[in-house]
Specification:
Layout (H helix, E strand, L loop, with lengths): L25 E5 L2 E4 L4 E4 L2 H4 L10 H11 L10 H14 L3 E5 L2 H18 L6 E5 L8 H6 L3 H4 L9 E4 L4 H10 L3 E7 L1 E2 L5 E2 L2 H14 L2 E5 L23 E4 L10 E5 L20 H16 L2 H19 L6 E7 L2 E6 L5 H8 L2 E2 L1 E3 L3 E4 L7 H19 L5
Parallel strand pairs: 3-15, 5-6, 5-7, 7-10
Antiparallel strand pairs: 1-2, 2-3, 4-12, 8-9, 11-12, 13-14, 14-17, 16-17
This protein binds pyridoxal-5'-phosphate (PLP).
Length: about 400
């Protein structure tokens, strides 16, 4: 545990203040641990917000990336990039889908998905295609993706929003069918299998199966945003695989490159050829360094059995939290799957992020009152126990303080 609360680091007068940052700067890491510039050590239960799949300074990823940097970082998409085919074929093998478009971030992957849904509509004569999205969804912060996002705070100040989104509650198949009846121009349903920023809200297996059926009945694309919940985090390669369904479009990013920016839109046969030459592109998308990061991340995940690790250690972490917080009335629910867990409290708890850092643990709070744990998938059972040992007493103390 860190003895003192983190000291203020140098202010950043030239960096735009778009983030409310903790007053600490991290200098290096190893495995699930990071150190700040003052030498304090933290257990990283946030993993760069579900990004650092292999933790920090992984012994096999680092030399692979060094090798790639020394060969070729970037070329442009004017030429073939063999590593793109290597990563794309692996993603298709793991998902059962057909073709991949590469980009660099989650919002870019979702932006491409939205364009696919619209073009899919135009190609079949729908002039003003609409996409069904969910309440509490988060799909990114570009204009189209923030319009698809179901959080008025994120949208405030950026109107006019992009039109063409129809919003329904998550896990309500009846509302989905109704939306289809009242909106004849719908061409796709777009949702996160587990909502991340919205508070770790899983779509149920029944709902996912109903969604697949309703999409098939209506000739809609089923587009599953697995930017946060995908890439092994839940214990399967992709979270929707727990429901035994396949999407038509699956945006990925975050954990795919274990920290190197890489996004992908993985498409099944109905969507794979919707975009053609000149329809979409991005300078950095699919560059050799990003592709190598994806290829090596997946290779190491397979070699080290990280899907099983996420499932087993995730279950232990969840059980440990449930036991340590048992009987605490202010804990509403502990939910999620694998190493994507949320602890919902009965009141806003943003302050816990600072308190946890002071106690040597990195976490985040999302949707105001949900503690989010998305650590690297290499987390050990012992490290999971350490998360519980630090976090549970902080939560108990917090909940038993008089309200400000
Ligand atoms: C489900 C989901 N989609 C999209 C995004 C946006 O990704 P990015 O921040 O890489 O643009 C996020 C980021 O948190 C996300 O959780």
């Amino acid at each position: 545990m860190n003895a003192a609360a983190p000291a203020a680091v140098t202010l950043e007068p030239h960096v735009m203040a778009t983030y409310a940052r903790l007053p600490l700067a991290l200098s290096h890491g190893r495995g699930c641990w990071v150190w700040d510039t003052e030498g304090r050590k933290y257990l990283d239960a946030l993993g760069g917000i579900a990004v650092n799949t292999l933790g920090h300074a992984h012994g096999r990823l680092v030399p692979a990336l060094q090798d790639q940097v020394a060969r070729l970082i970037h070329t442009s998409n004017y030429y073939h990039v063999p590593l793109q085919e290597q990563l794309a074929s692996k993603l298709c093998e793991l998902s059962g889908l057909a073709k991949v478009f590469f980009c660099s971030t989650g919002l870019e992957a979702n932006e491409a998905a939205i364009k696919i849904a619209r073009k899919f509509g135009h190609d079949k004569g729908v002039e003003r295609p609409e996409i069904i999205v969910c309440e509490k969804a988060f799909h990114g912060r570009s204009l189209a993706t923030l319009s698809a996002t179901g959080n008025p705070k994120i949208q405030a100040g950026f109107g006019p929003l992009v039109e063409g989104f129809v919003r329904v509650p998550l896990n309500d198949a009846g509302a989905l069918a109704d939306a289809g009846r009242t909106h004849p121009n719908v061409t796709a349903l777009f949702l996160e299998v587990i909502q991340g920023e919205g508070g770790i809200n899983p779509a149920t297996i029944d709902y996912l199966r109903a969604a697949r059926r309703i999409c098939d009945e209506n000739d809609w694309l089923l587009m599953l945003d697995e930017v946060q919940c995908g890439m092994g985090r839940t214990g399967k390669w992709f979270a929707h695989q727990w429901a035994g369904i396949r999407p038509d479009v699956m945006p990925l990013a975050k954990g795919l490159g274990s920290g190197v920016p890489v996004g992908a839109v993985v498409c099944g046969p109905r969507a794979a050829d919707v975009l053609g030459p000149g329809n979409h592109g991005t300078t950095f998308g699919g560059n050799p360094l990003a592709m190598r990061a994806g290829v090596e991340t997946i290779r190491i995940m397979e070699e080290d059995g990280l899907l099983d690790n996420a499932a087993i250690v995730g279950a232990a972490l969840r059980a440990g939290l449930a036991q340590a917080l048992a009987g605490e009335a202010g804990v509403v629910e502990i939910r999620g799957q694998g190493l994507m867990l949320g602890v919902e409290l009965a009141r806003p708890c943003g302050d816990l992020v600072k308190r946890a850092a002071a106690a040597g643990l990195l976490i985040s709070v999302t949707a105001e009152q949900v503690i989010r744990l998305v650590p690297p998938l290499i987390l050990s059972a012992d490290e999971a126990a350490q998360i519980v040992a630090i976090l549970a007493p902080l939560v108990r103390t917090f909940l038993n303080e008089p309200r400000p």
